[in-house]
Amino acid sequence: MKYKLPFQIAELARQKTGLAIPINFVFGGDDLFPQYRDLGMTDGVDIILSRKMINLPLDNQVAVIAHEIAHLIMMQSGILHTENEADSLASWLIGKKIWYDEYDIQTTRNTGKIRPHYLGQ
Ligand SMILES: [Zn+2]
């Protein structure tokens, strides 16, 4: 994968947590990401990203990748967690609050919008 941003954020996460966990990224097919806001997922081993990600503003890319890394870290640590907790850990990892944009996608841009309840917490 030539897309470098995920690996840069993973390195930041390793430095911040001190955890030496492997964080691997792969691109997944469009069938895995049917909705506009479906951009990433993790099975606890790999983080699978949609190619749609690359065309998003950087603020979205950073927030979504950090959110998936947060899921991966907690899954690998055996911590049951919520979506809000993934955002909280993601926020700590990158040192920026996670907001939601008009498409309900995570962003580091201050939109004033928190995670909508209908997305699940
Ligand atoms: Zn999530």
Question: What attributes characterize this protein structure?
Answer:
121 residues, Zincin-like, alpha+beta, three-stranded mixed β-sheet, binds zinc ion, two-stranded antiparallel ribbon, 5 strands
Question: How are the secondary structure elements laid out?
Answer:
Layout: H1 5-17, E1 24-27, E2 40-42, E3 46-49, H2 58-76, H3 83-94, E4 99-100, E5 106-107
Parallel strand pairs: 1-3
Antiparallel strand pairs: 2-3, 4-5
The structure holds zinc ion (ZN).
What does this structure look like?
The chain has 121 residues and is α+β, with helices and mostly antiparallel strands. It has one domain: 2-Layer Sandwich (Zincin-like), CATH 3.30.2010.10. The protein is 36% helix and 12% strand. It contains three helices and five strands, in the order H-E-E-E-H-H-E-E. It has helices at 5-17, 58-76, 83-94, and strands at 24-27, 40-42, 46-49, 99-100, 106-107. The strands form two sheets. It has a three-stranded mixed β-sheet, covered by helices on one side. It has a two-stranded antiparallel ribbon with strand order 4-5. A hairpin with a 5-residue loop joins strand 4 (99-100) and strand 5. Helix 1 (5-17) crosses helix 2 (58-76). The chain is globular, with a radius of gyration of 13 Å. The structure holds zinc ion. Residues 67, 71, 83, 86 line the site of zinc ion. The site of zinc ion has 4 residues, from helix 2 and helix 3.
